[in-house]
Amino acid sequence: MSQERNIYLRDIPLEDAWAIFSGALQHAGLWGPFPAEDVPVSEALGRVTAAPIWARISSPHYHASAMDGYAVRARDTLGATETAPVTLEEGTPATASRPALAVNTGQPLPDWADAVIMIEHVQPLGEGRLLIRSPVAPWQHVRPMGEDMVATELVLPANHTLRPVDVGAAAACGHATVSVRRRPVVAILATGSELVQPGDPLRPGDVIEFNSLVLAGQVQEWGGIPQRLPPVPDDLERIREAVRAAAPAADLFLINAGSSAGTEDHTAAVVRALGQLLVHGVAVRPGHPVVLGMLETEGRRVPVIGVPGYPVSAALTGEIFVRPLLDRWLGRPAEPLPTIEGELTRKVLSPVGDEEYLRVTVGQVGERVLVTPLGRGAGVITSLVRADGIVRIPRFSEGYNAGDRVTVHLYRSPHVIAHSALISGSHDLTLDLLAQFLAERHPTYRLVSAHVGSLGGLIALERGQAHLAGCHLLDVETGEYNVAYVRRYVPGRAVRLITLVGRVQGLIVPRGNPRGITGIADLAREDVRYVNRQRGAGTRLLFDHLLARAGLRPEQITGYAHEQITHLAVAAAVQSGQADAGMGVLAAARALDLDFIPLATERYDLALALEYADVPPVRATLELLHDDAFRAAVAALPGYDVARMGMIVADVL
C-alpha cells in the first residue's frame, strides 16, 4: 500500500517565519535572556555576563614598587647630579636622615616612602651608604593603589562575552565567581534508516551521519551545550518516543532530516503530535523544508526546529535560526558577519520566490574584488568548506548578472582575501598539492583555484579575474601547447607561460576493463557509455582531436553530453557505474583504483599575467615550482613528469 506524502503547510518568507516563531517564543516566556548562574572565574571564559562586574577591591590594593631598587622619599633625592651626587643610607627614618629601603618589583612601599630608585641607578659605597647621581620625582617607579582598578569601579558591563583578559580583570578586582547567563541545552536528533557512523563499513545507499557533528559544533561555538542523541531510523513512533524522552532536559530541540515531503519524512507529524506545528516550509534556499514548532513537555514549552537533511541546508539553518535564538537567550548582541563589496564573475539565476544564500569565493586581483559562485547543490558540504562567504539574493530578484556589484557576508577575514593567489582554468591534481605546500611554507598566503577549463581560465586572465591560468591546449596544426591560445584569448595582456608538469592522458575504465575497451574507436560502440569534460576544457579539446583523427563524430559517442568538471569527477562517474569510460589523467584513475588506457602525453602550463608577478602570494606560489619537496611530491603521482617544471616556455606580449 502506498504511503501518503506530506504537504507543506505554507511556503512563507523568512521574515514571516521568524515573526511566527518569535511570537510563540514570547507567548511561552522564552524570548528574553536566560537566568543567571554563578561560575568560578576559572570556568568563565566565553560565557556572557548576566550582571555588571564591579571592582570589590582596588588593584593593586596597596602602593607597590614597579621596579627592583630602593624605596625613598623623593625630597631626599633633590639636587643629585653627576657632578654633585647625593648620599643615601640604608634604613628607615628612625635610623637615617636620608633613608633608602631595598624593595623588589611588586613589594609594598613603606608608608614613609613615595618613590623608587632603580637598582641600576644606585652606586653602593659600603657601610650602608648609597650614591645617586639623579633625583626621582614623587611616585616615580611606583604603582599606586588603584592604578588599574579602584574599588566600586565598573570593570565589565552585563551582556559581555568574557575574554581571557576579562577573566583576569574580574579575578584581579576580587571576584572568585562571576554571574553569567545559563548556557542553553540543545538536543540534536538525527533521523534516517540509511545513516551509519563515521568509520563504519559502507554499502550502496548508506549515508555517513555527520550533520549532527556540524550542528553540535555550531551550538558549542555559539555558546550552547549540544547533546547529540543516538540516531533513529525513519519510523514515526520511534522518532516521536526519542523526542518525547529527551525534550524535558532540552531548551531547544533540533530534529535533523525528515522535514521534507517524502513518505519517510516524519518531523512535521512528530511536532504536531507532541505540541504545536508553526511553520513547515520557508522560502529560503538552501533550507527550504524547515519545520518550526513548540513541544509540550512536563508543563514546559520547548522550541523545536526541523532541520533539512541536506548538509548545506542543515548548516545554513543553524546560521539562520539557531544562532539568533542562542544570542537572544544569552543576552548577547548579535554580531553580524563582516562584509565586503565585490564584482560577480558570472551570471547567477535564482528562484523567483525564494531568498537564496549563495556560497562564493572571494579574491582580489589588482584593485578588483572578485566574487565567484560555488556549487549550489544542497548536498555539497565542501561548498561551505571552500566558501569565503555568502551572497544573499533577495526574493523576486531573479539573480544577478556577471559584473554586478554584490555584498558578501564573509566567513574569512579580509586579510585572508587580500593575501590569496587566484588560479583559474583546467583542473589538475597537482594544484591541490600546490595549495597545501603554499599553506605550509607561507601560512599567511593561500591559493584559490576555480575549475572552469583551460579556455575559461585564459578568458578569466584576459578579464583580469585571475592572477594565473592553468591550461593544456593543443594546437593541432603545430603540435604546440598553449602559446597560440594565449595569443588568441589574452590579446590585451603580457603573459608568461611556465610549465607546471608533463602528464599522461587516457581513458579511465573500471577495474578489469569489463567492456574490453582498447582505444577511441571502441567508444562508438552501442554498449559503451562515455563521460566527457566540460566545454573549454583542454582534456575535451584533446578528446575531440583524437575523435577526429579516428574518423568519429561526437554524435556517435553515447554520453558525449554527460559532463564533469574535474578528472576525479570523471573517475568517480566511472567507478560508480554512470559511465564505462572517460578521458582523464592516470593519477585520477589510480586514486580510485581504476584501470587506464594511455592515449597521449601533454604539457600543462601556468599562464601568468606579468603585471601580477610581484604580488607576494603569486610570487610565493611560483617559487614552489623550484622547491625540491614539492617536485618530489608531484613526481610521486602516477603519470606525472616534473623534468620541465618551472621552465619558462614563452613570454607572449
Number of strands: 38
> Structural class per helix/strand content?
alpha/beta
CATH class of the largest domain: Alpha Beta
The CATH homology group name of the largest domain: Periplasmic binding protein-like II
> In angstroms, what is the radius of gyration?
34 Å
Based on the coordinates given, report the CATH architecture of the largest domain. 3-Layer(aba) Sandwich
- Nearest-integer average pLDDT: 93
Number of domains: 5
Please give the share of residues in helix.
10-25%
Shape: flat
The third-level CATH topology of the largest domain is: D-Maltodextrin-Binding Protein, domain 2
**What is the distance, rounded to the nearest whole angstrom, between the alpha carbons of the first and last residues?**
71 Å
Instruction: Give unreliable regions as ranges.
Output: 1-7
How would you characterize this protein structure?
It is built from 16 helices and 38 strands. The longest helix has 19 residues, at 311-329. The radius of gyration is 34 Å and the shape is flat. Residues 1-7 have low confidence and may be disordered.
